[in-house]
Amino acid sequence: MRDTALPMDDRGLAYGDGVFETILVRDGRPLLWKLHMARLQAGIERLALPRLDLAAFEALPAQCGPGLKVLKLIVTRGSGGRGYRPPEPAEPRWRWTISAFQPIAERWFEGVNVRCCELRLGRQPRLAGIKHLARLENVLARQEWQDDAIAEGLLLDSEDCLVEATAMNLVWRREGRLETPLLDRCGVDGTLLSALEAIVDIDRVRVGIDTLLAADAAWLINSVQGAWPIRRLDDSAGNCLRQWRLATSDTFRQAAHEQLGYSLNLGD
Amino acid sequence: MRDTALPMDDRGLAYGDGVFETILVRDGRPLLWKLHMARLQAGIERLALPRLDLAAFEALPAQCGPGLKVLKLIVTRGSGGRGYRPPEPAEPRWRWTISAFQPIAERWFEGVNVRCCELRLGRQPRLAGIKHLARLENVLARQEWQDDAIAEGLLLDSEDCLVEATAMNLVWRREGRLETPLLDRCGVDGTLLSALEAIVDIDRVRVGIDTLLAADAAWLINSVQGAWPIRRLDDSAGNCLRQWRLATSDTFRQAAHEQLGYSLNLGD
């Protein structure tokens, strides 16, 4: 693992001035690599970070070694500047870590219980979609519950529109169509979501919780954990809003897991 | 200066999960120390960071040595945790740096040109007021202009209510009353603002830009730079919205500078 210390004057620490990716790597081969690099590049451009040759990252997955790993890659604007004003020129800094990873397979098959968070995401179109480092809203939302029987928390925005879960995107099926919240005002545009949109139609919609409650099925997805069917949704006080009966055959989950190579390993 | 390296798994870097203060120190004596410590404590409580004995910081200002310095203090939730979920227990980490500082005295006397930023702050009451590390909105706003003749940028929220400048609070006088924007949905509750509120009446109001344009005088303030009278306000395209004639006697600025000891040094 690369020496990972950062100086205190790094702007990633000072202001959240940077972006990151967490990438699933199996036996040294990354999953959804192009989509991760595309989002990283989009974040670099959105924050006007200095240009960076992403080819430098190509060699990292092979260093993960055998087995299932998560490669976390952070790119910051680097050190310094007078206050919020970035230095000219800035020298970007990047760091990475590798962690062993084991997906929670029972959540794929048994589904998960989810709650609605009390916190509402602020609307910030300038930061929406990218995976920047200023994620304190997600931290506060994740602090709302300690019960391990609750797998995730749904987030709505300041005008009560559905956005995502604290670390996953949300997809549901309604009247035979797949839908997911628009991510143009807040939220992170997930790489697994992008990969699925390339192979199936998923409508991006601006709707409130009632639309989700009317869905025939719903899933939480991300590029590391895969797809978790939602079994039950509670409000923030713990009252059940809706339960879903899980289908015996879940083609959406299967499509998600094919993207991550999970179907082959676990007979899903 | 304390060894300031931080590990990559520090949550301040990963998520902006922490708070900071920048404190003016003159000849080893801090200005507005109690207010800085009070805001730090408020931030620690709001983020539910582990309790920290702030007495540990009491010895820092004396280490700044002679002259005018800025002491920057960062407190993060420390390392680790599974994703956004904080580790239990978390071990907070704190770091500090000392920098030489020279206020820009001509801005006190000649006033400043200010522009309105295009970026609108997202509304997030859970983070409003505290000086947390997830300040990417401020960075993006400060990137909007490069012209050194523009000293600061005004920020409005997503519903076009006045909030602050990128690194300063905003105060104006209208019909003989001092007013400042409410900071309950976004923005940072400045220590100099708090100090001034303790000695003069300043109404916190939720208003748009028109109220500022109708003001008789306006200032930007913070606990390091002091008070800058606003001479001219432009829109984000550079069109002048309003000019103010600076008063020969500015009692508000004098009151601000007494809080920071600037009046004694510079005959203000």
UniProtKB/TrEMBL annotation, chains A, B:
Its cofactor is pyridoxal 5'-phosphate. Keywords: Folate biosynthesis, Lyase, Pyridoxal phosphate. GO terms for molecular function: lyase activity. Pfam families: Aminotran_4 (PF01063). Pathway: Cofactor biosynthesis; tetrahydrofolate biosynthesis; 4-aminobenzoate from chorismate: step 2/2. Homodimer. Belongs to the class-IV pyridoxal-phosphate-dependent aminotransferase family. This is Aminodeoxychorismate lyase. It comes from Salinicola acroporae. The gene is pabC.
